[in-house]
Amino acid sequence: MRVWLPVVRAGSGSDVFSERLADGLRAVGVDVRLDWFPLRYEFLPELLRARVPHGTDVIHANSWNACVFTGRGIPVVATVLHLVHDPAFAPYRSRAEALYHDMNIRWRERRALRRCDRVTAISHYVARTVEQFSGRRDVITIPNWVDISRYAPDTHVDAGVDQPFRLLLVGNQSRRKGADLLPRLVSELGDGFEIRCTGGLRNKVDDAHPGVHWLGRLDEADLIREYQSCDAVITLSRYEGFGYTALEGMACGKPVVAFRTSALSEVIEDGKTGLLVELEDILAFASACRRLRDDQGWSRSAGQRARRRAESVFGQSRSIEMYCDLYAEAIAQREHAEGRSA
Length: 342
Prior knowledge:
Strand content: 15-25%
CATH superfamily of the largest domain: Glycogen Phosphorylase B
Largest sheet: 6 strands, parallel
CATH architecture of the largest domain: 3-Layer(aba) Sandwich
Number of helices: 11
């Protein structure tokens, strides 16, 4: 089976998803080709039609550009990471972004969701938004994953006695990711905490917020070490199609504090693997952080439960197996349809 992944590099979680998908497929012996294309292809994805490699059995594309591959006789799988047309996402778009999505993306994505052989979503939340947007009722949820052999607890890490409680925040500096809430959180937390922050793939960090130790952009090995050495992971994100950073922290055995919003409650079990608070409630968020600091026995137990959840629910092998089964079904269905029409 030859699978082609055409990816327009976006500097976001979609890049991470594509890399991890390609690595996971190769690990089980799938012949996969991952091709990166510059951002200009997003404005006119029809140019990708001429780039399909000879002998491709399945095309697996982002839902923004998958429509250009339908009708070629090759099964097409589209994955939705988060739906920008979701009304709940609207407050976190600029006017320019909303206009661009409405003019350039909406019609292409709706066409892809209606015409592709299979459509997948990375969370049940995203699947529901896709069904409401497209009318399609067979969207398949395949959750994201991490390599739990790499994202793993480090039993040798010791914060020492009388050290500040270390919180790690990972993500792009945007309003959707809650960057504007960070100064308020620092103020509410007070003494006894150290917040370490690293930017995501798109944004450079700045040092505008006192009380925050900016780490800059880290490579994966350094990022994993930060997860391992912190006491808890926090995310101030207001909207997530999944919640990669929450899962990465959980895999490293850390409890997570987050808002109860979008897909984050599918990743984090409130009161078991972390703590969820209502959206925008920084007082409650700070209180949850203090609870972890003041009851470190519970915090460590929550981290252990988080690791077990990452292993049992979000392991790579289960999700990759689901994608492989999906490809095989799409190929068989296409071959059956072609045989009947011959």
